[in-house]
Specification:
globular; about 75% helix; about 200 residues; homodimer; mainly alpha
């Protein structure tokens, strides 16, 4: 129990019975994969895990928190993205490009991220989670910051270039973009992202 | 045999003994996957299939032809890409974007292409084939047309945006870019590709 508390402190996770936590996480993964993020409620995850829904909230917080834990996303987009967009759309392209490369070039975070994208490529249910759950945590604040009638299209174009960089640099490792310095790649991408954000389409 | 000949005429494949052809194709897939496109010779594929290398050339032509058959690529990049670049770099961005969308939006060709990219995401050896074999058939002529010292980087940036469109529109199907009209997406992407080709990076 002492070791578990120490571990919880390190990871920022709430303490509690490890079996209950694992059961909820397992149920969430199963329900999300089987039925999709949007069609599953916290109440249903609690039922599938055989626990009171209040315990789901106690261990994981919101449904978004539960998704991030289930996907093992190594950063919190709900903190990262607002920090980028709160300064407005001017210069947003370079801020997104720089932050994106610093997160993905970090080897500790790169491994779970690559695994996440790989699973989304091979499984329809994982693709759904990337699209409806994580995608909305990332793209909706960007679209809100853009604020035009075509903001959703613009945000998804930003997403398309970033997903392409994931493939070219981290998954397929196409040279020279795979081993070019982060600053070179960020400088090349920033005007693309900026035009998708507020330039002519 | 008559049916086979008729089939060969339809598909443009050379006639011959179907077992020999299948054995060569199976050996090629195995050798490419195990050792990588660049490290396998036509002679070695013949040996693995238990046939004379001349038969490999008879059935499939070059090693590039063999790769396209092994990957079941539903178009020939060695015809498609030169037709795009022979008019020079002016307007190349819009030509690439328009052609890319017409190939990928074609449902008959989309299925094998999606399967190809999916396998490259989940398997290191398939990723190698996409990178070293097919990648070079597509990116090298583009880099040659660009012709600057940083042409390889520019070509791989073009590749990154196109791979991102594959993910966003055809694999993960992120809206609205997934169901936007092809002309809308081509118009949005063309200036990105053109800047990667000959604009400031």
């Amino acid at each position: 129990m002492t070791a578990e508390r120490a571990s919880n402190r390190r990871t920022g996770r709430r303490p509690g019975h490890p079996n209950t936590r694992a059961a909820i996480l397992s149920a969430a993964k199963g329900e999300f994969a089987a039925r999709g993020f949007d069609r599953v409620s916290v109440r249903e995850i609690g039922r599938a895990a055989g626990v009171d829904p209040a315990l789901v909230h106690h261990y994981f917080g919101s449904k978004d928190d539960l998704l991030l834990a289930a996907l093992e996303v190594p950063f919190d987009p709900r903190e990262l993205i607002p920090a980028l967009v709160e300064q407005g759309t001017a210069g947003l392209g370079v801020r997104i490009a720089t932050t994106f490369l610093s997160v993905w070039d970090d080897e500790v975070r790169q491994l779970p991220l690559v695994a996440l994208v790989r699973s989304a490529m091979s499984s329809e249910s994982a693709a759904d989670l990337l699209r409806s759950g994580l995608g909305q945590m990332i793209l909706t604040p960007v679209a809100d910051a853009i604020g035009t009638p075509d903001a959703q299209l613009r945000a998804s174009l930003v997403g398309s270039q970033l997903m392409g960089l994931i493939m070219a640099r981290y998954l397929v490792r196409m040279e020279p973009v795979a081993s070019a310095p982060a600053a070179t790649v960020a400088a090349a991408l920033a005007p693309t992202l900026q035009r998708y954000i507020d330039g002519p389409l």
